[in-house]
Amino acid sequence: MKALKLHELTAHEIRDMLRKREISAIEVIEDTYCRIDSVEDSINSFITLTREKAYEDAKKVEKTIKEGQEPPDLAGIPMAVKDNICTEGIRTTCASGMLADFVPPYSAEVYERLVNDSCITIGKTNMDEFAMGDLGNPCDGSAAAVASGEVCFSLGSDMGGSIRQFAALCGVVGMKPTYGLVSRYGLITSAPSLDQIGPITRDVHDCALVMNCIAGHDSKDSASVRIQAEDYRSALISDVKGFRIGIPKEYFGEGTDNGIKKLILEQIKVLEDLGAHGEEMSLPHSEYAMQAYHIIASAEASSNLARYDGVRYGFRAGQYDNLEDLYVKTRSRGFGAGVKRSIMLGAYVLSSDRYDFYYKKALQIRTLIREDFNRAFEKYDVIITPVTPGVGLDSWKKIEDTISVYMTDVYTAPVNIAGIAAMSVPCGVKDGLPVSMQIIGRPFDEKRILQAAFACEQNSRIGGYQHEI
Amino acid sequence: MKYETVIGLEVHVELLTDTKMFCGCKNEFGGDANTRCCPVCLGFPGALPTLNENAVEFAVKAGLATNCRIAEYSEMARKNYFYPDLPKAFQISQHNLPLCSNGYVDIEVGGITNRIGISRIHIEEDAGKLIHADEADDYSLVDYNRAGVPLIEIVSEPDIHTPEEGRQYMEKLRKILEYLEVSDCRMQEGSLRCDANISLRSPGESKLGAKVEIKNMNSMKALEKALAYEEARQAEVLDKDGKLIQETRRWDEMSGTTISMRGKEHAQDYRYFPEPDLVPIAIDAKRIRNIKSGIPELPYEREKRFIREFGLPAYDSIVLTSSKAIADFYEKCLIEYDNPKAVSNWVMGDFLRIMNDRGLSIKDIIFPPSYLIKLLRLIDSSAISGTAAKQIFEAMFESGKKPEVLVKELGLEQISDEADILELVRKVIKDNPKSVKDYKEGNNKAMDFIIGQAMKASKGRGNPKVISETIKSILDNM
User: A199, A207 in Cβ contact below 8 A?
Assistant: First the structure.
């Protein structure tokens, strides 16, 4: 059985084996933890592992299968959940001292949906504190866990590009769905207008399966949109005939590594060979996206993280003289430096005499960027860009100052600002490191994005998921 | 007049929705501490607010009833500040784009009508309540049952110029909101609260003087007293060439004074910005029409109609329409009885007096309006005397029994039988020879005394008309 190397398989492959009774749900979990035990020390993807619960849940799935019932697609599939997504009864820390012992009494809507489909929770994954992009030590266990074979897929969150960038870095598939398509209820975020939960998977097929489970209206999220449920599996056809592809020149400029450009353009050529039409176009306001993004994100963080005051839950400083002292000590000690920097920046841009100059202007830029995309999508079905300007962790390692680390989000953040959907799909290898491209689509047109991604994956010269670590 | 007083009021009203503003928790006063809360109203990580559409509707009702413009597009905003009773460390309120704006209400003071502008009405959530332990203990507790209760804030223009106008404006708002049934408007319980901004300036001066905000006025009377005190205090400072500072002061009911809480330098920057967790509120003309059609007759209209339709004096009409419940009770009485003034006398008189004495509200009245009418009919038919009727009425508040039952139980049937009365009167005349003599010598008042003695002898049950006629005829024939 071990020869099967379950950890190299995709969710849909494991699903088929489970249904054919070639393996048992318990064996899947055993194999999963066996893999974790052998690689976790070097990967460090997890903050919390939920071994006991996973075995219990797997037994239930096994029982269902033995009773001859056809389980849902993701039944028995091992998944990891980013530690900013609330899981009832399971510690949810946001990798912050502030919530180090926080066990939520409720679950995020997406998590509940996956659990209802009998998906097995393997653990909660590591992240930057409050997903705010820690300088010098970027971290995302959700993508690493999938790439290293620790789990089959994971749920990540994408505020300015986390899902897409880390999926690219690790050579796996990641999707940031349209704002409002996937419920945000239970996502502990610092920037609620930008953040979105999405899947990180080993291939495009799995991405469609997870989207099928988590997309759809939730009355607990006021931004959640009521739209007809889609079966994203219908996008899994290798057909892009007539697709009009926009290639924004601002995203292929001097800042982007030439090797990356070349690989992406080659991939577009593959799509063109299949009947798509690529065309250079412009998204003129994207160059202001980074400034707008950081103003909006830090403004929202200064307000959204204010609730961590030591009064009701989470960390509270041990000794304090009065109320103000309680606030100051709790928040000074509970938060890390990056979070505090962001809160200060946010409080500044929202202060009454700076608001018009920074925050209001950022909202205006937001509108312009949205309009750029709206205009573009009148003409193009998808837009293809790089995910990051460089490959691997180099793009972070070279960074010495705060300003340039912000620039790593330059190609992904406009999508969050506009609230539209995008996916990161592997398209090659450069210097032994995976390179991905970003496929951006119309709001709620995840299907077409998946279709383009599937065509790339099927016809790419590099093939799909690379599991070596 | 040496100074012109300029007052603006900010009125907070708790709305009577079933649930809280952004979650499904029950919206009720009281209850054991922290039993009406959930992850949303406690501001737990990852919990999201969803807007209570009923609260929006109630606020629009209030806006329409105060002649406001209703915004087709408005948005919620965050007001950021730290306090333990505020779970998220921001209050979800409205800032640049409130739901209602540019309205007014008319008030009447000394026969003159004044129009008080309403600059805006916006919706927001209430905070929890701090419970301070004994001074010996070094902690405080927080009850979050009230956190997230829907509020509207009604902000007036600085169009109020006397403490009395301030109170009239507040009374007017209370009446309107109570008629709309959007709030129970109980100042004691805090479902209606008011902060005042007051400043003085020389007549003719266009610039406003240093503004003082007064808080903690828990009744209409307290509002008027606090404004009067502050007006006098500021005038005194100005008279002595002193300088007024912009500050916040607290009304202290015990001492009848205002006490400084904090100066302008402690004014906070709330860093308002649009609430990213809630989509903007869009209200189309059709929805506004629907809400409008649900607005009942308002107090002012009803007051005029009572005068017109029932021929009531203005005073009666104002008293009867001061509360929707009283006016409803009054009108139900008139369904079966067409002497509006007689009913008005009873409702305005004994009815309100007994309610006041016993601290009752209309919900506590256990008999239907038709019982009052039965009582009036008993008087009309001379079955009981007016005095007996008052006794029966009191008893109705206690037992809720029909007046005819109470008449028998209390033995209060009126004696109108001429033979019985003749016997009674003869005895009184016999026992009061001096008064008879006085009357005979031309002192008419002596007759009244004899009638009084006869009524007393009948224990109040004698028909006064029959008694007085009988006495007169006997005396005149003596």
Answer: yes
Q: At what angle do helices A446-459 and A204-214 cross, to 10 degrees?
A: 160
CB A12 within 8 A of CB A204: no
Domain ranges of chain B: 4-287, 296-410, 418-476
**Fold (topology level) of B418-476:** Arc Repressor Mutant, subunit A (1.10.10)
Task: Please give the single-letter amino acid code of residue B236.
Answer: E
Phi, psi for residue A252 in degrees, rounded to 5: -120, 30
Q: Structure tokens of A138? A: 């970027």
Check residue A433 and give its pLDDT: 87
* Mean pLDDT, each 10-residue run in order, chain A (469 residues): 72 95 94 94 94 96 90 96 97 96 97 97 95 66 93 96 93 97 97 97 97 97 92 95 97 90 94 96 95 96 97 94 94 95 96 96 98 98 94 56 67 97 94 92 97 92 48
Q: A366 to chain B: which residues are within 8 Å by CB?
A: none
Do B56 and B281 touch, CB atoms closer than 8 A?
Answer: yes
What are the angstrom distances between the C-alpha of A333 and each of A308, A316, A317, A336?
A: 11, 9, 7, 8
Q: Is B110 on the interface with A (CB under 8 A)?
A: no
What are the pLDDT tens digits along chain B (478 aa)? 689 999 999 999 999 999 999 999 999 888 899 999 999 999 999 999 999 999 999 999 999 999 999 999 999 999 999 999 999 999 999 999 999 999 999 998 888 999 999 999 999 999 999 988 777 777 889 999 999 999 999 999 999 999 999 999 999 999 999 999 999 999 988 899 999 999 999 888 888 889 999 999 999 999 999 999 999 999 999 999 888 899 999 999 999 999 998 887 777 899 999 999 999 999 999 999 999 999 999 999 999 999 999 999 999 999 999 889 999 999 999 998 989 999 999 999 999 999 989 988 888 899 999 999 999 998 888 788 788 888 899 999 999 899 988 888 887 777 777 788 888 888 888 888 888 888 888 888 888 888 888 888 887 778 888 888 888 888 888 7
Tokens of A433: 């490191």
3-state secondary structure at position B110: coil
- Residue in A188, A193, A302 nearest the CB of B46: A188
Instruction: Give the Cα separation of B233 and B227 in Å (integer).
Output: 10
The b/e string for B273-295 (b: 16+ C-beta within 10 A; e otherwise) is: bbbbbbbebebeeebeeebeeee
Terminal-to-terminal C-alpha distance of chain B: 70
Cα B434 from Cα A151, distance rounded (Å): 116
Q: Domains along chain A? A: 2-291+359-459 (3.90.1300.10)
What span, in angstroms and rounded, lies between the C-alpha atoms of A126 and A95? 7
Q: Are the Cβ atoms of B45 and A85 closer than 8 angstroms? A: no
* Å between B88 CA and nearest CA of chain A: 4
Contact list in A for residue B278 (CB cut-off 8 A) is 222
Please tell me if residue B78 touches chain A, with a CB cutoff of 8 Å.
yes
Intra-chain end-to-end CA distance of chain A, in Å: 22
Which of B37, B129, B273 is the mutation pick for testing A, counting most A CBs within 10 A? B273
* Residue among B135, B130, B150, B125 at smallest CA distance from B33: B130
Cα A133 to Cα A125: distance, rounded to the nearest angstrom: 15
Task: State the nearest Cα–Cα gap between A364 and chain B, in angstroms.
Answer: 13
| Confidence at residue A390, expressed as pLDDT on a 0 to 100 scale | 83
Tens digit of each residue's pLDDT (9 = 90 or more) over B286-296: 999 999 999 99
- Selection from A186, A12, A200 nearest residue A113 by Cα: A186
The string of DSSP codes covering A162-212 is HHHHHHHHHT-EEEEPPTTTB--TTB--S-TTT-EEEEEESSHHHHHHHHH
Please judge whether B48 and A222 are an interchain contact, meaning their C-beta atoms are less than 8 angstroms apart: yes
